[in-house]
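Preliminary data (for renewal application), zinc ion complex.
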Amino acid sequence: MVWAGVPRPIQRGGPDWVRLSVLGCAGGATRTIIPGGDAGDLARLLCERGWAERNAGNISVDVTELAAIVREETDRHPLVPLGLAYPDMAGRVILISRSGARMRDVSRDPAGSMAAIEIAPDGSAYRALREAARPPTSEFCVHLRVHQSLRMRSAAQRAVVHTHPTELTALTQAQDYCEQAKLNDLLWGMHPEVKVFIPEGVGFVPYLRPASEELAEATAAAMEGHRVVVWEKHGAIAVGRGLAEAFDLIDTPNKSAKIYLLCRSAGLRPAGLTETELAELKEVEQFFKSLGDDA
Ligand SMILES: [Zn+2]
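Predicted structure:
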């Protein structure tokens, strides 16, 4: 099933409008304000959950329609080849966490933690929009592929979040749950809100080397039918209209995984929701859709 998001137009100059000056282009500001949530707030949440050990996790937001770019600044920085061409990303402006950046440092040091980049007109290189302290995350290729896939489908999502949700990742150590259908049956069955807010289920990508083109390709393919994808023995990645929405799409199924593992560790056999109980959740799903809270 292909999920279709509902575009939420951003008013030019409105509250969601982003000035790259907050990242230091024009100097001064201290916060990385991006639509749908603040990068510092999201990073704090990831740390609180225990999903951001060392430099784990990376985030990006396509701010092309939102960014007030200081062109004079951009011209000072050289183009860096991307290795692959991303034609649908030509000219896009992305805020993305830097290689080695700690989520716990984003609030304190947003400019040192997040890079602002612009993709070249032919999609084969990028340019830093401020001083190139550190390059984008090692998972840059994954973020680019996912963003490109979103643009090719004219999707509403602009934010990509990758993190290491502990319980969800733990499930993928069991071969039983390394099959997408079985994994979704488990996650839907442990809590009704997973079915309500992720009716299409989570996607699943078998283990592939982190930061590899293979992982990027498999993730972008899985994202065509899902908003959140679980990486075997590694973590999860989600897309949202903003960072908060992407976070929720990982947090919600992780709650199910946690309930399941808690039951098992207590010696309980979790019953799970019945087919009838799951079917009647369609009404709740429609209610939240009507509020524009989700799909
Ligand atoms: Zn990771």
